[in-house]
Amino acid sequence: MAQRKQQPTKARSQPQPRKSSSRLLWTLLVAVLSVLLAFFFGPWTKESLDSTANPNEPPRPYHVVDIPGKGKGVIATRDIARGELLYRESPLFIVPSRISVPPAELMGKLLPTLSKSERVALFNLSYVRLPPNLSKDDPNYDAQVALAITQTNGIAAGTRGVGVFPNVSRMNHGCSSAFNAVYSWREKEQKLVVYAIRPIKQGQEILTAYFDTRRPRRERREHLQEHYDFHCTCAVCSLPDDISGISDERLSRMQNMHNELSAWAQGQIEGDEAIELINEIWWVGSLERYWSQRGRLAADAVMVALAHSDAWAAREWADTAMTWYGYELGTDSEHVQEMKDVIESPQTQRSWGTRRRQSVGGPLKKT
Ligand SMILES: C[S@@+](CC[C@H](N)C(=O)[O-])C[C@H]1O[C@@H](n2cnc3c(N)ncnc32)[C@H](O)[C@@H]1O
């Protein structure tokens, strides 16, 4: 990198022109006013609680804005590369998977444990359903709102329960090829990370998938209407009927083939048949431009190859899995490390040689 030239000391020591004192006062007043106005009305008043924000890191490549018909949403402020980290956020709280009291009662107990800023962050989030006839004077009103917020924004935090992440929560939903960001929970860090799974252009909305969208449009829309109270008009849901039908077919086919794959685990199909299925799912996924879960798919193939003692195939698939896990879960994720271990030493993996030796086949396509 080119070094910046030092300014000659002489120039530095030159006296700066002085402003008159009244002009200085006026400038100061304007500056203070703009800071105050920006604080109260600026777009970051609600979003400044970004636990991902770190002064030592470059600024985040997106901002939160109002999007007609969607409430708030997240827009890329520059081009984002596939595999870029978008968020790394701790939950405000986690509602355990198993609870012994009614959910609203639990929320009532949880609210007093939040700091003032956490409470503000929580109550800034959107929600879709409150119990009918709930009055603002009801002593449980806040707890009921907090519950509705948790239901609308909650994200699984591993097996522990459901977490609320105020920044990640601003991402709206897209189906199949329409979503471009994927989140995953990191158990060791107790944080949620979100990565871009495809390149995102400046000005494009950053969308994630609220559920597994490998199902037909009608079912997807029903699910979204029921749980999130909106009619999905994402790029895939708004395809013309005939093209949407083709997309639906591909998505259902992917899902069905996934189910068929479980026959390998039950010993009902051979390793090469399982790999054939995986390559087919991969291919249909490419046609659909469905990029998510590819790391997992390739890792399934690794498992098959290891079990059938095919070191070459295991390494090839592990290499593919490493790439896609890297995009989706991060190059520093445990999953990427596991794949590195396979490449280094397939024969020492636990599942090595647990099935009949067979040459199962490697990936047909890497994209
Ligand atoms: C987790 S929040 C997403 C952020 C939210 N838009 C906000 O203002 O905070 C989920 C809610 O956002 C809205 N939403 C999400 N995706 C949408 C979409 N594709 N089209 C319309 N509304 C959407 C729905 O109201 C949904 O209940």
TrEMBL record:
It comes from the Eukaryota. This is SET domain-containing protein. It comes from Thelephora ganbajun.
